[in-house]
Write a structure and sequence with these properties.
CATH superfamily: Fumarylacetoacetase-like, C-terminal domain
Strand order of the largest sheet: 4-3-14-7-8-11
Distance between the termini: 40 Å
Bound molecules: manganese (II) ion
Number of domains: 1
CATH architecture: Alpha-Beta Complex
Largest sheet: 6 strands, mixed
Structural class: alpha+beta
Strand content: 25-35%
Shape: globular
Length: about 230
């Protein structure tokens, strides 16, 4: 007899380049306002440090699948981001040890119901409905990675037109700092994904739009909003 009153859903999985076995997703943490120019376009103060929010693990949309345009929004935004995939965990991890926890990197889009986010901010309410909805985290395959984190260009285009074009080297918190800061707030574990924030020039998507994003040397994400 099963231990459960019904069969649990299988865990969300992201493919790994060159591997037949997938990366099982435990949690998705996201960094907000980690690029100065994006912080400014969102009306943020230059002294405000980045911060975290979360998405459910099953928000990932793996390569080859298309996210559905979500209900209850008229302003769905793209946010192109570098994603850190962890193979180990811990609490209060020093920055000097943070890269030891990194399995590899992917690229992902932090889809955002901007109208709900703005309303939440004005009312002092949580961001969950703005950020943590179904299909809100399209992602590429994960590339295994040793050594210094990626430093290349980060780009996103919609229907072939370039919308975002910046460098992941411009992040306010770098990857070791992000992992270390997150580990002060949560016990990190293997399987955790961390979206590291988006550069400037976020914008709206509509049904049928084709989105392509890349971080040089890491990978490409491509999907259609359906
Ligand atoms: Mn974001």
């Amino acid at each position: 007899m099963s231990a459960y009153v019904f069969e649990p859903r299988p865990v969300a999985v992201v493919p790994v380049e060159g591997e037949s076995r997938g990366f099982p997703v435990r949690r998705i943490l996201c960094v907000g306002r980690n690029y100065a120019a994006h912080r400014r376009e969102m009306g943020g103060d230059d002294r405000d440090p980045p911060f975290f929010f979360a998405k459910p693990a099953d928000a990932v949309v793996p390569p080859g699948q298309d996210p559905a345009y979500p209900p209850r929004t008229e302003n769905l935004h793209y946010e192109m981001e570098l994603v850190v995939a962890l193979k180990g965990g811990g609490s209060d991890v020093p920055t000097e040890e943070a890269l030891d926890l990194v399995y590899g990197y992917a690229v992902g889009v932090d889809l955002t119901r901007r109208d709900l986010q703005t309303a939440s901010r004005e009312k002092g309410q949580p961001w969950d409905s703005a950020k943590g909805f179904d299909d809100s985290a399209p992602i590429s395959a994960i590339r295994r990675w040793d050594g210094p984190p990626p430093q290349g260009r980060i780009r996103l285009s919609v229907n072939g037109e370039v919308k975002q074009d910046a460098s992941v080297a411009d992040m306010i918190w770098n990857v070791p700092e992000i992992v270390s800061e997150a580990s002060k707030l949560w016990r990190l574990e293997a399987g955790d994904l961390i979206f590291t924030g988006t550069p400037e020039r976020v914008g709206a998507l509509k049904r049928g739009d084709r989105v392509e994003g890349e971080v040089e040397g890491v990978g490409r994400v491509a999907f259609q909003v359906v």
